[in-house]
Amino acid sequence: MIRLPGDFGLTTMASKSVITKQSALFVRLAVRRGGHERLGFWRPAVRPSSSKFQSGLELPASTTKRFSTVTTTKPQHPVKDILKGRARRDLHGKVAIVTGAGSQGDDIGNGRAISILLAEDGASVVCVDKDVSLAQRTASIIHQALKRRGKPESPPAALAIQADVTNESDCRRIVDTAVSSFGRLDILVNVVGVMGAHGTAVDLNPEEWAWGLEINVTSMMLMSRAAIPAMLQNQRREENGSIRGSIVNIGSVAGLRGGTRHLLYPTSKGAVVNMTRAMAAHHGRDGIRVNCVCPGMLFTPMMAGGMTDEMREARKKRSLLGTEGNAWDCASAVRFLAGDEARWITGSILTVDAGATAAVALSSPV
Ligand SMILES: NC(=O)c1ccc[n+]([C@@H]2O[C@H](COP(=O)([O-])OP(=O)(O)OC[C@H]3O[C@@H](n4cnc5c(N)ncnc54)[C@H](O)[C@@H]3O)[C@@H](O)[C@H]2O)c1
């Protein structure tokens, strides 16, 4: 053991202290106390950078009495180890299906915005629509957007497919296409939904009612029925919480509260909300997450037709934020729930409505 002169002003309770680093301001010590090793920082009276404090010098245990001028810290782990437990937003290597991925013209509906955001984070997206030209336009927007950002596509970021999600064999074909084109399936976003039958129980058309339930509710069951077996082929990985697949259903705030003019839409969206919870319970132990996004009154192509400026203003005023949302707001919430950052979230109903369902907006400050 190298003995240090006794004038350093250091007194510790340590059984062993070894210098591990010297700098102009301090000397770092590995301090052993009570069976634990810690780091200590010591500012000696004489210059810390002097040759007396070279790394590897061991301080004599016999001179240690009190622990005063050494400050100990908890052991520090490498930063890469500290960051290891978190999930990533990255969707590279994941394959997603988005139903209702088209949108009229070049406008941005929910399915189109969702497809674009998933692809932007690296997923390969199967864009499904009963009108294939609308799905193709979405896929083309994705290709062009990634090109503009200089992001190479390998495998392709999007492909368009024509299908009717109320038809079970179409649903199976969608999933088969995803798996044969990209090798796996990780994410299903059930977007397709319509306003459906107009009227109350007294005056609605029962055939339109049945058809509306088929589009808004049954289609989501059929798509999940086809998708879950494919998702179960995925290996569980610890870093994504052992999740094998993620389903996001698009509900509506109309499914959470009454007050909507027609009976079909709130009824079917209420069913989507509780179908989400029931499916989350059925498939959670298999590593499948099922969540629901409930948008409020967004301004999308579906809503734009026939809405006056006064109607838009009135809609804004009904929310706490007093502003208007659009499809991107819905899509951001879906992207979060679809990906690994939400690995511990299932059975959850996320409202995207500027607070409209949280409370009644105050019209005066009192
Ligand atoms: N726009 C809003 O303010 C709002 C609010 C709450 C919830 N939502 C929900 O968001 C979803 C999408 O709304 P949007 O405004 O973007 O709709 P949208 O009408 O713009 O887009 C829906 C797409 O689905 C396609 N589609 C319809 N039936 C289909 C079927 N059987 N098979 C395959 N594709 C089909 C259409 O061709 C269309 O391209 C719906 O579920 C809707 O209820 C919308």
SSE map:
Elements lengths: L15 E7 L4 E7 L2 E7 L15 E2 L10 E4 L5 H4 L12 E5 L10 H11 L3 E6 L2 H17 L9 E5 L5 H15 L4 E4 L15 H26 L13 E6 L13 H20 L4 E8 L5 H4 L4 H9 L9 H12 L10 E4 L14
Parallel strand pairs: 6-7, 6-9, 7-8, 9-10, 10-11, 11-12
Antiparallel strand pairs: 1-2, 1-4, 2-3, 3-5
Helix pairs in contact: 2-3, 2-9, 4-5, 5-6
The chain binds nicotinamide-adenine-dinucleotide.
Which features would summarize this protein structure in a list?
366 residues; alpha/beta; 2 domains; seven-stranded parallel sheet; 9 helices; 32% helix; binds nicotinamide-adenine-dinucleotide
What does it look like?
By secondary structure, this protein is of the alpha/beta class. It has two domains: 16-76, no CATH class; 95-352, NAD(P)-binding Rossmann-like Domain (Rossmann fold). 32% of the residues lie in helices and 18% in strands. The chain contains nine helices and twelve strands. It has helices at residues 79-82, 110-120, 132-148, 168-182, 206-231, 264-283, 301-304, 309-317, 327-338, and strands at residues 16-22, 27-33, 36-42, 58-59, 70-73, 95-99, 124-129, 158-162, 187-190, 245-250, 288-295, 349-352. A seven-stranded parallel beta sheet has the order 8-7-6-9-10-11-12, sandwiched between helices. Strands 4-1-2-3-5 form a five-stranded antiparallel beta sheet, with no helix packed on it. Strand 6 (95-99), helix 2 (110-120) and strand 7 (124-129) form a beta-alpha-beta unit. Helix 2 packs across helix 9 and helix 5 (206-231) packs parallel to helix 6 (264-283). The N and C termini lie far apart (76 Å). The model is unreliable at 1-9 and 63-70 (pLDDT under 50). Residues 99-100, 102-103, 109-111, 128-131, 134, 164-166, 191-193, 215, 250, 252, 295, 297-298, 300-303, 327 line the site of nicotinamide-adenine-dinucleotide. It holds the Pfam family adh_short_C2. Belongs to the short-chain dehydrogenases/reductases (SDR) family. GO terms for molecular function: oxidoreductase activity, acting on the CH-OH group of donors, NAD or NADP as acceptor; quinone binding. Keywords: NADP. This is Bacilysin biosynthesis oxido BacC.
